[in-house]
Amino acid sequence: MSQPRDSYPQTSQDNYQDSYQGRQHNGHQDAYTPVPRQGPGGSYRDGIQDSIRQEPRLLAAGPDAGWARHLDTFGQWEPQAAGPGLLEVLAESGLTGRGGAAFETWRKATATAGTGRKGLFAARPVVIANGAEGEPLSFKDRTLLAHAPHLVIDGLIALAAALGQTGGRTSSQTSAGGTSMYVYAPAASLPRVKQALGERPGGKKIRVVQAPETFISGESSAVVNMIENGTALPTDQRRRLSESGLNGRPTLVVNVETLAQVALIARYGAQWFRQAGTATDPGTRLVSMSGPAFTRDVVLEVPGGVQLSAVLKEAGMDPGSLSAVLVGGYHGRWVRPADLALTPAGAPGRAVRPGAGVIHALDLQTCGIQATARILNYLAGQSARQCGPCMFGLPAMASVLNRIAGGETNPRLSSELDRLGRLVSGRGACRHPEGTTGMVSSALEVFAADFRAHLSGYCTVPGGVAA
């Protein structure tokens, strides 16, 4: 499996080449094209989005956009002034989270704001911009923080203002109505984030915390645990973070791309946002594209409901030359490169959930079982080791899958892998075991013929061997 996290887009403008598809740098391609201040156009229909052609929104200011170019592209704007009525606008927009779960953004924010109003003394809310991106195949959030940090910060301030004012405070107390703000991101992103905060008025009020380079460091309770206690491990949440999060305060953890979308919606409105995508999956999303060695790792901005095959073609891949595609990352699903809509709102069999915005393709010369085994080995080693499913279940599954990948001709191994997956799923202290077993379950389905071949002692990959 490729590991694109080792080389992210840098903050230099050298070697960028302007084109409709984007500007290439260090093996990554990011979709940039200047966009009018009133917001780009676009259209949708009630079915599936056939075309990927979408005027860039999130990366419209171009590479390494500083404060001046950010304002020149999007216009002068006071994000804290967007607080009143913002949650209602977000509800109308239909924005869902871009970090993986695709939960409605306005519902999460409203729950946090509602908790802050309870009691004799209203608790000050906390909003955390989550850019941890522990997913090994994901680099979209780091690309966004490198090239459009001000859009993320705009969204953070606007949402914090909405929570602070909804909680009964006025914007005169702080620029975000009394709400505390954090940016949580890996070491590679921190210099750019700090530079952006230093460029803008009031940036020092936002605290920056380094996220460890682990798979589970971006889980919401792990984010709060790291900021509060210095340990990026999920906690057993008897109470929701919206009720009792950082230091017991109502806390909202939001993916950085989601916050950038919030900033655009606050600027241009819900109807503008819905001009892209479909009625049930409005707007755009960033996807991290990777695949065979001959293709570049690329970040694309695509409309909601777009065909997976169209996205693959835009990234320079021929769906006919691929054996399978992992959609959603290591906690996603394997699918065949068929005509599926990339959306969290589609029907099973006709759509695949984008999850963390990761699309990784396998060519016909790569064994899907061996690729899945490598992923499972990684995930078993990345657990919090705080519950039985993580400590014992995932390593046991990895052991069985390694035996199958190695060509052991025991016909019971496939059913044993399925049995272990059903035992582990839904029983962990966090969603890590469930996400892992979901990926393995999809492999058992998509690579069914390959499993039968390996259990017979051979590999279906041309020239491949199971052992």
From TrEMBL:
According to the UniProt entry, the coiled-coil residues are: none
In its keyword annotation, does this UniProt entry include Isomerase?
Answer: no
Pfam families per the UniProt record, alphabetical = Complex1_51K, NADH_4Fe-4S
Q: Which SMART domains match?
A: NADH_4Fe-4S (SM00928)
Task: Locate the region Disordered.
Answer: 1-48
Per the record, the domain of life is Bacteria
Query: In what residue span(s) does the NADH-ubiquinone oxidoreductase 51kDa subunit iron-sulphur binding domain sit?
Result: 369-413
Gene3D superfamilies given in the database record: 3.10.20.600, NADH-ubiquinone oxidoreductase 51kDa subunit (3.40.50.11540), NADH-ubiquinone oxidoreductase 51kDa subunit, iron-sulphur binding domain (1.20.1440.230)
**Sorted UniProt keywords:** 4Fe-4S, Iron, Iron-sulfur, Metal-binding
- On whether Metal-binding is a keyword of this UniProt record, the answer is yes
Feature: compositional bias, Polar residues = 1-24
Q: Which family does it belong to?
A: Belongs to the complex I 51 kDa subunit family.
Q: How is this protein named in the record?
A: NADH-ubiquinone oxidoreductase-F iron-sulfur binding region domain-containing protein
Q: Which organism is it from?
A: Arthrobacter sedimenti
